[in-house]
């Protein structure tokens, strides 16, 4: 699917504002972007109206309006690269550079270092190769990383459109929406409308904390982590949320959480069998109680993503069993907040 990109004037103006912090006048912006003042004014108005958390207008002086990039620079972009040598203002010493070059050992015909800087200094620092186990298995999703950096820099909740505008993405990008929901699934950010994340007024907020740790965790998030549906914790009803197609990579018989898919009615049969255990008779249980009990029996085949299916299976068990119409239902509904059932005694 083609991604809508901003026109050249919008891109040029947004780039100039992001690279030149502080108030900028219309003449300066139009000249730097290479567009006329009427076009620059129209673009700026559109940016302020659609993305107020990214571009802001200061009209305290009506005769001299100014515009500024509202998102602060992240600490990651402000820090100089560690690999760059410090500029001391001195010319390099050719004698020292020559001494550091390898010299040829005429007796062996091989190159050997001229000197070991750590010898005789008491230094024991040795650059050891990094543990291969710590290397990332895949590259971080750049759309998710853009969303994470933008949210970390924002000072207030911002919409999907504002996050998209900061990275020249389409406000209707399903990749961005799915990435935001994946970050929410991992508890890294909050969504104001979890059942309507695609609403225009839905906002996203970073939970706060250490920025570097947040970005490190975001780098491990994948769009496939976003659940296909949002499940209500009260009633168990689910709502499908639009998103990009996810590459399962492990084959068609594997769920999003990596576990093998259940056969038809397999999970419902597991729920019924657990409820029919004699030691559970008469208990008051919630959906999470049943999930915990099932995990003790079936291990990690039962995950948090099984909540909706377990809830639906329990609702069905409140009705009479068609095969045994003379028997009462296995479960009786006791309360709504939280949803609680009582297990009937089979004795």
UniProtKB/TrEMBL annotation:
Bias-annotated ranges (Acidic residues): 125-134
Ranges of Low complexity composition bias in the record: 72-86
Biased composition (Basic and acidic residues): 88-108
Region of interest (Disordered), residue spans: 72-138
UniProt-recorded name of the protein: Uncharacterized protein
């Amino acid at each position: 699917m083609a991604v809508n990109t901003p026109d050249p004037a919008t891109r040029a103006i947004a780039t100039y504002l992001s690279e030149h912090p502080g108030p900028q006048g219309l003449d300066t912006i139009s000249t730097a972007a290479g567009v006329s003042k009427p076009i620059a004014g129209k673009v700026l108005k559109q940016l302020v109206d659609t993305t107020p958390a990214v571009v802001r207008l200061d009209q305290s002086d009506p005769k001299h309006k100014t515009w500024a990039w509202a998102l602060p620079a992240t600490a990651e972009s402000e820090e100089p690269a560690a690999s760059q040598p410090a500029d001391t203002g001195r010319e390099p010493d050719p004698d020292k550079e020559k001494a550091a070059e390898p010299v040829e050992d005429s007796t062996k015909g091989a190159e050997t270092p001229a000197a070991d800087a750590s010898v005789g200094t008491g230094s024991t620092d040795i650059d050891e190769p990094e543990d291969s186990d710590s290397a990332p298995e895949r590259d971080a999703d750049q759309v998710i990383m853009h969303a994470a950096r933008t949210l970390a820099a924002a000072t207030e909740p911002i919409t999907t459109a504002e996050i998209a505008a900061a990275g020249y993405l389409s406000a209707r990008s399903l990749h961005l929406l799915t990435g935001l929901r994946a970050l929410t699934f991992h508890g890294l950010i909050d969504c104001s409308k979890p059942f309507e994340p695609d609403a225009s007024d839905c906002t996203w907020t970073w939970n706060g904390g250490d920025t570097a740790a947040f970005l490190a965790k975001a780098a491990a998030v994948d769009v496939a982590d976003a659940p296909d549906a949002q499940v209500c914790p009260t009633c168990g009803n689910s709502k499908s949320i639009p998103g990009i197609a996810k590459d399962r990579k492990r084959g068609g018989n594997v769920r999003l959480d990596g576990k093998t898919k259940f056969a038809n009615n397999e999970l419902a049969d597991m729920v019924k069998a657990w409820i029919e255990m004699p030691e559970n008779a008469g208990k008051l249980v919630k959906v999470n109680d049943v999930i915990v009990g099932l995990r003790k029996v079936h291990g990690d085949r039962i995950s948090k993503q099984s909540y909706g299916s377990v809830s639906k299976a329990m609702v069905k068990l409140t009705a009479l069993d068609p095969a045994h119409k003379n028997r009462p239902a296995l479960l009786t509904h006791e309360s709504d907040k939280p949803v609680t059932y009582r297990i009937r005694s089979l004795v």
